[in-house]
Amino acid sequence: MSFLNGKFRSTWIRFTFCFLFLLPLLYPFLLKPGEQLYSDHLAKFILGESVGRNGFLSGNLVLPSKSLDPEGHYCPTECIRIGEELISPFPAALGYVYAAFLPWSGIVGVYVAVTILILLSFLLLSILWDWDPIYLGVLVLATPFLVNGYFFPDVGIASFLFIGGSFLFLRSGNSSSWLRFVSSGFICASSAWFRIESIVFPFAFLFFLSIYKFSNVKERRKILAYSFGFLVGVALLFGIQYILYKHPLGPRFSFNQPTMFLLPWKKWKIYTGLLIANPNRIGFFGYTPAFLIVLFFFVYYIFIKKNPFKRISALEISNRELFVYSGLAAFLALVISAPNDGIIDFGSRYLHLSLPVFAGMFLILLENIGEKFRKIAKIVLFTILLYSVYISFSYTQILGKYGRTTTKLNTIYLEQKPDLVVVQIRTYSQILGKYFFQTPSVWLMREGHIKNFFSKNRPDQFKKILFVQTKASIAQNLNESDPFLKNKYYESITQALGPDYKKVWSENKEDVLLFSMERKK
């Protein structure tokens, strides 16, 4: 559908596009940036602030607790030690983006900028799919493309770069300059600075282009130029990361590496969590079940209807179709090599770049339904999609509610004014929020960690220490009337601090037990 051919005259279609394009602009109000400083989001804020404090010369984490824990054994955010530096496993490039925005716009500027990139991504994808309202509607309303891109800025930036580079290639004609194709490959490779797994998608696109189009002399020029730009981008990424982190794939790969190379039949829990669900998160197909039908159709379509070994098929397949097929092939490769994201995180974040190609394959599925079953098949598919629309709405609500909850935790920190914060689970360093750099905090998970930490750091240097204990660790022995009874973690704290400290405040929340220990005068 095009603005130029007069098909965009329908009032309903104009209203639909306006609504879909404006929806990203609502997210800074639905998921307020100031309420997103917890868990991974807090870790990215810490990385950005550290880059800024280091004068943009290093990603070495600036932690208030570094003098207390120079080895980084009890780092309150996810970190990897490389030489003398504590490095975040999150992309250094994202830290530089945060560092650029934080001084003048605060955390709000980061999320507003990412919102604009998501809107531009929608615009580019709409052009690629000829302004088809079904395509954009499925992507925006029935997948987590919007909420993931906004909620996780590294995902939003990486997807914009990949989509932007792909758009540059797919909208170029045979007469376009060689530099344009080189640039498109380089921009696609640049997305890996923010999400290392995104590198699989342009690689798969090149593979499919070579199979279907390389025999065409005109296409060969485009493919070689795209390949050159892509390889230069990848070489630059790998080279810099090897120099900085002693590994070409960077710190995040090192962080996830133990589970990436498990044999496939030993990764069923990861696959289940990634694709369907686990006790804490919903997976890729759990969010959009219609895409499971799309995947089965793709396997049939690519091997039966578009057999790559038929030479004539090269004349029947557009570059946009190859973009879809290669994206689905990349999806399968990523699933097989999936790290622990399937267990501990939301599956579609890791597989985010698959969402636009699944939406594209969904349209191909609709076009290939036989006339006899077309009506009932469409009713079934769109009914399934309504479930996904409901999930999108619910997911946004849940994230908003959790963000508001963590903001309330920040007030406890301000009221207690501790000299040290101790968290049993890293996630609960969220209690510090934007105040993270004002007070030292450490992650002491087990009783032995408490004993070891306070044997190296004299307790009497702290007047008040705020502890955040996860109730999961005491669930079996928890006495709601007195949660400190038979609480081994609390017992180890009293032993390590000695008789000079007493409990002066506590609050028994749904998932955590918070309490302050104050030194007697």
TrEMBL record:
Membrane-spanning intervals of the chain: 12-30, 104-129, 192-211, 223-245, 284-302, 322-338, 350-369, 376-395
InterPro entries: LA3751_2-like (IPR059217)
Keywords, sorted A to Z: Membrane, Transmembrane, Transmembrane helix
Record's protein name: Glycosyltransferase RgtA/B/C/D-like domain-containing protein
Organism: Leptospira andrefontaineae
